[in-house]
Amino acid sequence: MRALLCKAFGPPETLVVEDLPSPTPGADEVVVTVKVAGVNFPDTLTIQNKYQFKPKLPFSPGQDIAGVIKEAGPGVSGFKVGDRVIANLTHGGFREEVAVQTSRLVPMPGGLDYENAASFCLPYTTSYHALKDCANLQQGESLLVLGASGGAGLAAVELGKLMGARVIACASTAEKLEVCRRYGADEVINYETEDMRGRMKELVGEKGVDVTYDPVGGKYSEPALRSMARKGRYLVVGFAAGPIPSFALNLILLKCCAVIGVRRGEFRLYEREVYDSNMRQLMDWIVAEKLRPLISARYSLERGAEAINALMTRQVMGKVVIVM
Ligand SMILES: NC(=O)c1ccc[n+]([C@@H]2O[C@H](COP(=O)([O-])OP(=O)(O)OC[C@H]3O[C@@H](n4cnc5c(N)ncnc54)[C@H](OP(=O)(O)O)[C@@H]3O)[C@@H](O)[C@H]2O)c1
């Protein structure tokens, strides 16, 4: 069984593909034959030892997988050999077979294919949790999405539209903004070439924007915070740009807005019933084609490092996947 391995922390080009023995499932674990794995921004951080979760070397990156149960360990109930499953891991997905705790598995609905199943979990569960549970986004409200053509961002655009919001999408190129429009954005801003604050004033006036979804950070966050409405909700999701912005607290006072941290992993841990219900809703929407996760490129396991590099160099729109 082949695995993409991080043997020393570093950039994607330090990853190697090696043959390893098949894993053996422990108690309450199954071995999943991975069909497709989704690539997410945290994979770029884990391999560089920059993520909050730090696996022991050597390890395979990869948080989102879809596949088939090959073997079940002692005490497994609710799942059996041959079941099609989705698993969300801390790491370990970029390999042909992986041992997974059953608590991390979700049965894959019949109408879902492996590529969609492997690519929606992290971005869509994050964005849905952020918009529904953290921001309580209401129909008719305005929603500003930064990094709107990325994995998490495009999910927020699509979900925001489905939830009845007026969606304003920010991205760095005309091609990316065109994708945002296709996925439901009502207005678009190129935040590299346009004056974001000025454009926001044109689009939402003095009232400001009700909800901001920020997975990017860096220089983009302050003009977004300055554009908030009274009683607005600013969702802190991630820092893909690198620098973590700091704000003067008076800005938040003046705006009378809330700044809310979003952590999907903690949500899954502490509010499992709501998480599972969100997951079921998202899968229903995908099967009904109300959501259409964008898969813009497919890589083999041998080219897995290129897939991770594509995220780090802002080349990706929607998702990229590794097809085993
Ligand atoms: N809080 C949570 O629970 C949670 C869950 C999932 C992900 N996240 C975080 O959310 C962020 C986005 O994740 P993702 O999987 O959506 O990533 P992604 O697909 O790579 O999207 C990130 C977007 O950020 C923008 N960006 C700006 N500067 C960048 C830079 N220097 N390098 C890379 N991208 C840059 C890019 O759009 P433009 O080129 O248009 O600017 C890109 O589309 C990450 O920080 C991730 O860790 C958090």
Search tags:
324 residues, alpha/beta, Quinone Oxidoreductase, Chain A, domain 1, seven-stranded mixed beta sheet, six-stranded parallel beta sheet, 31% helix, 26% strand
Brief overview:
The chain is α/β, with parallel strands linked by helices.
Q: Can you characterise this structure?
A:
- The protein is α/β, with parallel strands linked by helices and 324 residues long.
- Helix content is 31%, strand content 26%.
- It is built from ten helices and 15 strands.
- It has helices at 41-46, 114-134, 151-162, 174-182, 196-204, 221-226, 249-255, 264-270, 272-287, 304-312; strands at residues 2-5, 16-19, 29-39, 64-72, 84-88, 97-101, 105-107, 142-145, 166-171, 187-190, 209-214, 228-236, 258-261, 295-299, 319-323.
- Strands 3, 4, 5, 6, 7, 14 and 15 form a seven-stranded mixed sheet that branches. A six-stranded parallel sheet has the order 10-9-8-11-12-13, sandwiched between helices. Strands 1-2 form a two-stranded antiparallel ribbon.
- β11 (209-214), α6 and β12 (228-236) form a beta-alpha-beta unit.
- It starts with a strand and ends with a strand.
- NADP nicotinamide-adenine-dinucleotide phosphate binds at residues 40-42, 122-123, 126, 147, 149-153, 171-172, 176, 215-216, 237-242, 262-264, 311, 314, 316.
